[in-house]
Structure prediction request, 279 residues.
Amino acid sequence: MTNKKNWVSNPLDLLSQLDQERFEELPNCIKDQIELGYELDDMNSGDFLENVQYYIYQFSRDQYAYVRRGLISYKFKYYKVHKRLGYKTHKNFCQKVFGVSHWRIDAEIRAAKTFLTLVIAGFEIFPKNSAQAEMLRGFGTEDLIENWQLVIDNMAPHDISAPSIRQLLYAPTDDDRAMKNVKLPAIDYEKVWNEARERCCSTPQFIAHCVDFTIANETESTKSQANRSLHFTGGFLLANIFSAFLHHFETLLYSLNPSLKQAIWQDDLADLTSNYNGC
Prediction:
């Protein structure tokens, strides 16, 4: 008998609702996912088991898709492809072409470098996503290797996550105290979560610093305007202040992980050198 508590519904059932006209409208990268669904939906258990090693390989390879994205993204950035394609900035190119922030692209470039460093060092267990790899950001090669060894010595591979790495490698902060929930619109939460992840801190840390920044920079005029707004909720606050806050966040971040300061300087120097040589 199926344990309904742990049962998940079959996503392949939805494929029957996708008509051919809609399918043809999709970009190729989305069609690839749908075609895999059709392929799997047509298989009986015998067919699937006959090809099970192939699908194990596909699953394992896709866990490291962030590495491929990071390696490709570096070339996009290094060769200033945005200029060749008519975009004013790399930031605008990332937003319009990839649909993600340039912060996320940079995070995956760094994550790819972390991954290759661990490969060269002889490890057989690696970060499964860029969020895990970003927890190792800012460490020199020797410290990176030492800290990753500490992670795999203390956790089973399936227990490794960005929060568990942070808890192991970094001293407890005030954000480790008991938490209470704050409801945000989904689009704002995703934005805050992504920016927090790319700066190697928790979502509560990021929100707390956003609030501190707002209070520190609030004027009587902006406070009065906020008080007059009947829709000035927590979600509205974060949505409107956190973009400006990003420019000031790195300074606050140094207090959470001082080793990031040198890494950020190195990134900035590399960008300046690239811009100078490529203009």
